[in-house]
Amino acid sequence: MSTKEHEHRAHPVLHIAAPFVVLGTTWAARQILKKGYKSVTGNAAPDPEDPSVSFGKALAWALLIAGAATVIEMVIYRAASRVSPAQAERS
Q1: Taking the domains of the chain in order of start, what are their residue ranges?
Q2: What are the Cα distances from residue 58, in Å, to 51, 54, 61?
Q3: What confidence tens digit (pLDDT) does each residue in 2-55 have?
């Protein structure tokens, strides 16, 4: 196995824990975005499932949430991949 391949193998526990960290962090980000929306607009964030919300607002909110979730997931998985098995075992 080359050194480069070894650098990208994270400890198996990190691969198990990372999805749970992603879920929790994404939930927290959604709550922060909702509070931010309310503080900026004075209204509750649009509910994409509510038929009374315009399609444009529902789509914009869904894209914002999905974008934030994607960035969070990428950052967490990259951070988990940076930790080598030897570093994880020392922790």
Answers
A1: 3-90
A2: 9, 6, 5
A3: 445 545 566 777 778 888 999 999 999 999 999 999 999 999 999 989 999 999
